[in-house]
């Protein structure tokens, strides 16, 4: 095993590092040449396929090479020529595979056959599709109460699949329809409707071209939505300032070289992305924004006193907002020393950010998991909106709010019915369309599903995508509880840990990926997605399927429905599968405002946008106005309030993605931009904290969660690595650190796990243990990491 290395990476994001990394994975995954040519079809609408990585908007007309480093990795991962067929499963018991790393599991390649877990041999055994659906249908019919079953979806499947899956669950009788969004941007779905009456971004790519300034909170663009760097680069070339708030100096937000520009690749040209970079402490955003608001009020006072133009957009505030007076009083009441302590920034830094913001007329505020995954994630988002409203940056060209969504269709799935909230279901339309009474009670979201599994109330779990047991909190408590499930069905493309944590009856159902040609009775099918900017477009797979037994996701949903539901005179599942256009007609009938004439409009080359009142200054809120909403506290975690458990040896841990992973899919062990090579078993620390806690670089520690619910949670050994991170904060990788995150440690109201602020204590590990909870120090596979 080669030694892991840690040295700062000096190159910009993009550039040659990115080009090498793409080449490497294409070679490692033995992507056929036609597969490499496939990248030319990536993000090309109508007759190309939507990237399977992030949800960032695709420009129209598209660029000749419309993919990024991580999009190419995701495509290579799906179009790999490796196969994980029945012979693999005859060679390995599930107990043996439980010791494999996430990397090694997915590295086996595409799943090709339906498999059933056989407890007697402790192996997965091939079954026919007919057998699989027959038994799953029987199990579903045998459940005492439909609410004992959870229908989970990870945000990749198309609008057509999502709609069908939601209809299946509701006809079955439950609103238990959580999705990955519950661990992700659900904080936005709760915060934004209260503030401005829409659940999603109010901006389109056109606004990004027109903005003259940007605020950027807690999102790692260079790794998680790299194509967005093109718009940021263009903004910088127009002279628009970008003001960034992030505890880490993420390379993509510092400097960028467009790997698709020969000029930039051959010369030392690079674009400086952030004009101000504020290393706020973890959970310090509410205080930071409050400081900026206070500074804006003080600047406005000075403008009034000297007769200069106002800093506040007084006309907008009067005509369009509610709650301003209370908000003003609250912001003015905060004292600078408290704001400094809570944010980790100086007064000067917060004032500089306010001055930079006030210097722009059209500002977009973007944010990601660094905001949503906190106890007060909802309230932080509402503070960001408050800041925008003060200067009228909502509902005008070049301005607005931009939650940067994760999965490529996670936003769209919510739009077409994947929701546990009964009031979001168009019950009248469903009643008319399908002649049934949709369930009236709210179902379970992800956290409630976890609690239900722990309590033994959930008996069946149908997962369409995702690696649920690995992505959720408290993984070590959840795994034994999962084993008590009567039924666990995983519709997947690759082997992952959830397949190995079995229920009493467990199935792996392999499906087509989005890059693949989907042939049905009426010919090759298109499918549709909605991106981060509410743009809905049609796509088509172009690669030959990874196996001749694979079924499409709509086909699997239809067969699950036929096996488990009574026949419905209004609904012909086979016709839907034969022609996805019929599913789109049904979507248009359920959601006419967004999807009228769906089959026609999806063929427009730039797609179409869902209507969003807030972008036209129409406020669908209780007050009929855009609302200023005061935060409950200055901290993003109520437990870290003064007087709380803020002892000097407790650090706040954030759990992060590396540049070499897509969620729980680990592509490799290098986090190039952060200078970490060959390992994921690290904890990134401030050197002052290291000195204070008596730790040296390379020491092995175990991290222990500091909570008082009587459960011992620890992960280790992790290698202490000095890093540029604020004092009192530390960082480790997700999903390895998920065992540290208690199920109940989640955002208030949205219930998004607070994965960015876990209170931990570090204990030096003297000897290595073989404890299975300890992540195995990974052996980097040959050939990976050479770039
Ligand atoms: N290559 C790649 N692309 C992806 C994914 C992937 O795993 N790999 N995942 C996809 C998915 S599902 C999602 S949701 C998105 C996730 O994309 P991101 O939203 O970028 O999520 P993270 O990688 O978790 O990074 C969170 C960022 O927030 C910062 N942060 C942490 N705590 C705080 C805080 O308290 N305040 C502030 N201001 N910042 C903070 C961290 O330093 C980090 O830069 O990416 C999507 N795209
Ligand atoms: N500690 C911590 N935990 C977190 C986060 C964090 O930042 N920190 N982030 C959270 C977030 S934002 C998210 S979105 C979740 C996501 O976490 P995951 O559940 O990991 O999400 P996916 O990437 O959807 O899941 C990967 C699996 O999906 C399957 N798959 C891939 N493509 C397809 C397909 O086309 N169809 C089907 N049916 N299956 C497919 C593959 O088998 C693969 O193993 O993790 C959450 N968990
Ligand atoms: Mo996500």
From TrEMBL:
Gene Ontology cellular component terms for the protein in this record = membrane; oxidoreductase complex
Give the span(s) annotated as Disordered: 624-646
Biological process per Gene Ontology, one example term: cellular respiration
Cofactor(s) of this protein: [4Fe-4S] cluster; Mo-bis(molybdopterin guanine dinucleotide)
**Similarity comment text for this entry:** Belongs to the prokaryotic molybdopterin-containing oxidoreductase family.
Q: Which residues form the Molybdopterin dinucleotide-binding domain?
A: 651-753
Domain Molybdopterin oxidoreductase: where? 110-489
GO MF term (any one):
molybdopterin cofactor binding
For this entry, the protein name equals: Formate dehydrogenase
Q: What UniProt keywords are attached to this protein's entry?
A: 4Fe-4S, Iron, Iron-sulfur, Metal-binding, Molybdenum, Oxidoreductase
One Pfam family of this chain? Molydop_binding
InterPro entries in UniProt: Asp_de-COase-like_dom_sf (IPR009010), MopB_CT_YdeP (IPR037951), MoPterin_dinucl-bd_dom (IPR006657), Mopterin_OxRdtase (IPR006656), Mopterin_OxRdtse_a_bac (IPR010046), Prok_molybdopt-oxidoreductase (IPR050123), YdeP_MopB (IPR041953)
């Amino acid at each position: 095993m080669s030694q892991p290395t840690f040295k700062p990476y000096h190159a910009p994001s993009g550039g040659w590092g990115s080009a090498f990394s793409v080449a490497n994975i294409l070679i490692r995954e033995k992507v056929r040449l036609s597969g490499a040519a496939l990248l030319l079809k990536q993000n090309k609408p109508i007759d190309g396929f939507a990237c399977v990585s992030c949800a960032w908007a695709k420009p129209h007309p598209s660029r000749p090479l419309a993919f990024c480093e991580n999009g190419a990795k995701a495509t290579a991962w799906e179009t790999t020529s490796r196969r994980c067929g029945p012979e693999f499963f005859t060679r390995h018991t599930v107990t043996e595979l439980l010791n494999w790393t996430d990397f090694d599991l997915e590295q086996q390649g595409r799943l090709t056959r339906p498999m059933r877990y056989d407890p007697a041999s402790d192996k997965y055994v091939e079954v026919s599709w007919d057998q699989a659906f027959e038994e799953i249908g029987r199990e579903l019919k045998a459940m005492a109460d439909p609410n004992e079953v959870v229908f989970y979806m990870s945000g990749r499947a198309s609008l057509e699949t999502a709609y069908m899956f939601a209809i299946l669950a509701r006809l079955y009788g439950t609103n238990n329809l959580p999705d990955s969004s519950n661990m992700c941007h659900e904080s936005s779905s709760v915060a934004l409707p209260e503030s401005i009456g829409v659940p999603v971004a109010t901006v389109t790519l056109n606004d990004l071209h027109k903005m003259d300034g940007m605020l950027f909170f807690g999102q790692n663009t260079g790794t998680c939505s790299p194509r967005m760097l093109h718009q940021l680069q263009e903004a910088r070339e127009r002279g628009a300032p970008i003001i960034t708030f992030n505890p880490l100096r993420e390379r993509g937000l510092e400097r960028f070289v467009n790997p698709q520009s020969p000029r930039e690749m051959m010369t030392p040209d690079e674009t400086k992305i952030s004009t101000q970079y504020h290393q706020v402490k973890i959970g310090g955003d509410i205080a930071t924004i409050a400081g900026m608001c206070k500074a804006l009020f003080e600047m406005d006072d000075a403008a009034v006193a000297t007769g200069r133009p106002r800093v506040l957009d007084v006309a907008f505030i009067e005509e369009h907002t509610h709650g301003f007076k209370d908000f003003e009083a609250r912001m003015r009441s905060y004292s600078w020393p408290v704001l400094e302590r809570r944010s980790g920034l100086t007064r000067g830094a917060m004032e500089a950010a306010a001055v930079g913001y006030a210097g722009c007329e059209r500002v977009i505020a973007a944010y990601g998991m660094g905001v949503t995954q906190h106890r007060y994630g909802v309230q932080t988002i509402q503070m960001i909106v408050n800041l925008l409203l003060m200067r009228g940056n909502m509902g005008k060209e070049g301005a607005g709010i931009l939650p940067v969504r994760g999965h490529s269709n996670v936003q769209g799935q919510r739009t077409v019915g994947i929701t546990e909230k009964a009031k979001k279901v168009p019950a009248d339309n469903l009643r008319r369309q399908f002649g049934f009474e949709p369930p009236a009670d709210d179902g379970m979201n992800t956290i409630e599903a976890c609690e239900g599994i722990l309590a033994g109330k959930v008996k069946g779990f149908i997962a369409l995508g995702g690696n649920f047991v690995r992505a959720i909190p408290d993984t070590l408590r959840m795994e034994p509880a999962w084993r008590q499930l009567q039924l666990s069905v995983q519709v997947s493309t690759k082997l992952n840990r959830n397949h190995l944590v079995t229920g009493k009856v467990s199935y792996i159902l392999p499906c087509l990926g989005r890059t693949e040609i989907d042939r049905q009775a009426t010919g090759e099918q298109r499918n549709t997605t909605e991106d981060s900017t509410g743009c809905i477009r049609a796509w088509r797979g172009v690669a030959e399927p990874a196996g001749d037994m694979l079924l499409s996701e709509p086909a699997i949903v239809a067969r699950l429905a036929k096996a488990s539901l009574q026949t419905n005179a209004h609904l012909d599942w086979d016709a839907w599968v034969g022609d996805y256009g019929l599913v789109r007609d049904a979507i248009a009938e359920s959601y006419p405002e967004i999807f009228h004439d769906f089959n026609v409009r999806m063929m427009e080359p730039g797609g179409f946008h869902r209507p969003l009142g807030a972008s036209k200054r129409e406020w669908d809120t209780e007050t009929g106005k855009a609302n200023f909403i005061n935060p409950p506290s200055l901290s993003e975690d109520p437990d870290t309030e003064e007087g709380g458990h803020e002892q000097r040896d407790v650090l706040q841990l954030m759990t992060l993605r590396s540049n070499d992973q897509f969620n729980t899919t680990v592509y490799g062990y290098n986090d190039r931009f952060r200078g970490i090579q060959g390992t994921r078993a690290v904890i990134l620390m401030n050197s002052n904290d290291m000195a204070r806690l008596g730790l040296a670089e390379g020491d092995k520690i175990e991290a222990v969660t500091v909570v008082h619910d009587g459960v011992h949670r620890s992960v280790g050994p992790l290698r202490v690595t000095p890093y540029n991170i604020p004092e009192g904060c530390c960082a480790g990788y997700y999903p390895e650190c998920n065992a540290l995150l208690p199920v109940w440690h989640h955002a208030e109201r949205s219930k998004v796990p607070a994965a960015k602020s876990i209170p931990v204590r570090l204990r030096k590990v003297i000897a290595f243990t073989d404890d299975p909870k300890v992540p195995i120090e990974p052996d980097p596979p040959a050939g990976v990491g050479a770039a």
